[in-house]
Structure formats: structure tokens, C-alpha cells
Amino acid sequence: MLARRVIPCLDVANGRVVKGTRFVDLTDEGDPAELAGRYAREGADEIVFVDITAAPEGRGTTLEVVRRTASRAFVPLTVGGGVRSVDEMRDVLRAGADKVSFNTAAVAEPRLLTACARRFGRQAVVCAIDARRSPQPAGAALETTAWEVVTHGGRTPVGLDAIEWAQRAVELGAGELLVTSMDRDGTRSGFDTELLRAISSRVRVPVIASGGASGPEDFVVAVRDGGADAVLAASIFHRRVYSIDSVKQAMAAAGLPVRPVGQAAA
Amino acid sequence: MSRVKIAVLDYGAANLVSITQALSAVGAEVSVAASPSGLAAVEAIVVPGVGAAAPAMDQLQERGLVEPLRDWVRADRPCLGICLGLQLIFDASDEGDAATLGFLAGRTVGLQDAPTLPHIGWNSVNAVRPHPLFEGVADGSYFYFVHSFAPIPEDEGIVVARTTHGRPFVSVVAKGSLLGLQFHPEKSAAAGLRLLSNFVGLVAASSAGSSEVA
Predict the structure, then answer these.
(1) Residue B50 contacts A, CB cutoff 8 Å
(2) Which of A3, A97, A122 has the CB atom closest to B142's CB atom?
(3) Which of A41, A214, B38, B172 has the most crowded Cβ, counting Cβ within 10 A?
(4) Tell me: the pLDDT tens digits for B66-87?
């Protein structure tokens, strides 16, 4: 049975891992390749890098980070942030990444998802969706909850309904969705389970939950109630608040299939 | 003992970094071969690959790699197909309705009743019969998969392991020195490296055997 994945996310700026709350107040958390290698040894099922500067002049730095990581962490590697074309995606894959995630670029140019899926296969195309709850009238029913897509690292609302965009992204070519709640990101108040459920119940591709992890129980809830196939977190792993092992143990105890940490050669 | 020489086929379809790094990490001397000349001095060929079958076959043809590969497999020299590389060694693929290499009888078809597609992630590989490739790897160990298609071999005897996503599908085949993995050992952490290390060991044993004969 397909294991539910636990994925540490490394936000990278100028070749260093950084972390902030809601994309601001960034602090230095270490060397990306070193951290990725550590997580791979500790049982990470995949590593996600997000170049949060996403500046074209920083592309070489990101590719070098990917190369260094791919030579020491033998787990899948997803890279996002600032990839805007088929050729740029090709460069990232050639550096050793397995998938590329598109966020702002896909919203601006949805056909990019299709072009990249045609060239590299849907399995390599991840659509990252940053969503924020739309203001609701007082007393509105739960079913009317809506989420709006925001881009540029959470700074720009684009007037797109997140659920509709998720379905459209899959039709266009995304093989996976990385769904981040911007209301929860960095707050350690748990994943937005309703958002996850609203998306995972409408698409057939894997959904990665992101934004708000505070402890192992949140991972269980994201999968069990949110329907997520994978759960992503940053700060609780970087700061060693919880180990990947402790998260997986909680998931296994809840009856969720996970790849056991330290599953090595017998 | 000199290091085992392995060529990774480059036909423009794959991230070659991970597989070359992983084979190096388990002690092989790895080269990348984009033309037949790259196969001259090696002891084994790895056919990697992610993507669609039809363009991959076009690329193999264009680079003149199909016939050398056919001769190699006919001579039962060590060859390991990974993911798309496994699918290509069968007769044909439903993906783009492509005719493929035909080293093994059978057809590559879409995964049946899969709850999610593509099948992306870690899944357990369950042995149908023991094989030296899995020496020291616990049965049911998790490996990393990224695919939507899998081959159905005509000869059940070549099936080494199966994996279940919706319905069970064939995840490992072996016929003599021709081996195929639907998952990515180069992305499967410790279990994957152990398997690649076993492959390198099998190649070394095969080379030792043939040099005794020669």
C-alpha cells in the first residue's frame, strides 16, 4: 500500500535555508544540502526546496544546491520557486531534481503546466497553490467557505478560487498539488483540514498538505480528515521540535501506512 | 579488484544525476553513454528513464542505441532497466501506442483501478520468488515509484516481485542477466542503495565468470 509521505520543506534564499512566519521575518536555518542529507538519513520520504527569492540571477545558486543535494540524499527532490519555462524546468531536472513545482508562474501562464507535462510527464509537474480564506459574512454556513489563491509568496491575491484552480491545474497537467494554507503557514496552529478536504475530494492526483504543522497529531489529521497523501513541514523539523520518526510513529499508531524510519537492509 | 564499469544510457529522457551518483556511491565506475561507442568498455548497462515511451524509443533510434542494446541483451550481458527503462524492454506500450524493444514478451498497460494517478510515492515491494538482487533487503520493503503504466509479462516465470496500487502490478522482473525495476532504487534511500550494491556485485560476479571462460 502506498505510504503517506512526510516531507521536510527547505525554503532557500541565496543558497541558505531560511524560515519565517507567513513568509516574513526570515532567519537562517543552515546549509540546504547538509540539512537535506540529514533529513534523508532520518527518514524523510522526499525533500522539497523552495527558492523564495526566485530571482533569475539566483538560478545558478539554486541549481548548485540541487546538484549538491542529489549527490548525498538518495530520496526524491522537488524544487520550486521562480521556474517560468520548459527550458528552466529542464535545467532543474538535469541538476538532479525529480519534480518542479509551479506557483506564481502557473497562475500567470496556466499553459506552462501543460507544456511541461507534455515534455517531462505529469509526474514531474507539481502545482503549488497558496490559499487564503475569503472573508465570510457572519453566520455563513460552512459549505460556503471559500479560499482565494495568493501569489508572490503570499503577497498578491489574484481573485482565483483555490478549489477551482486546483481542479483546473490538474486538467492542465499537474500530477500533484502542494496546497499551502497562508492563514496557517508558520503559525503552528494545525493544517487547514477543510481546505485540504475540499481539494482532495475533487482531484485524483496526490495532495500535499502544507502550512501550520505544530506536532505529530496534525499530520495524522491532515491525512485522515483532510485526505492528504503527503504532509509537508519546515520549522518543526529544522528546530528539532519533532523528529520525522516521531511523526511517522504517530501516523502508524493511527493506522496510516508509512515507510518505517530505519527500514534498512535487513 | 577494479571497480565495475557501468554505462548509464542517455537518451534525453531522464535525470541522470541521481542514478549515476547512486551507482558511484555503491562502488561502480559510472559513465554516461549517448551513443554506441559509450558501450565499448563497460560490463553492464543501466537503462533509466522517466517519461513517455514513444519519444524515448525515437531518441534511442536516433542515437543508434537500439541494435547495440539488442545484441547486448541477446548475449545475456547484465542490463538493468529502471521505470520507463523496464517498460521499454517489453514488446509494446499502451502509452502513446508505442512499439518498444521487445526483449521480453508482454505489453505495458495503464495501472488498473489505481486510487491516484500517477502512482507517486513509496510502496512496498513483495517478493514472488527470491532473487540475489534483494539479498539483505527485507521482503515488503518500501521503494519509490513514479509512474502510471506497468508491464504485463507473458511469462509469469520472469516475475520477481509485485506491488499493489489499486490492483497488484509487476514491479520487478528478471530473466538471466536482464533485470527490470518499476521503482527508482536511486531514490529509495538505504534499501535502494543496497539493491544497487547487489546489482554491482552481480555484474562483478558475471564479469569474473566470463573472463574465466575467455
Answers:
(1) yes
(2) A3
(3) B172
(4) 999 999 999 999 999 999 999 9
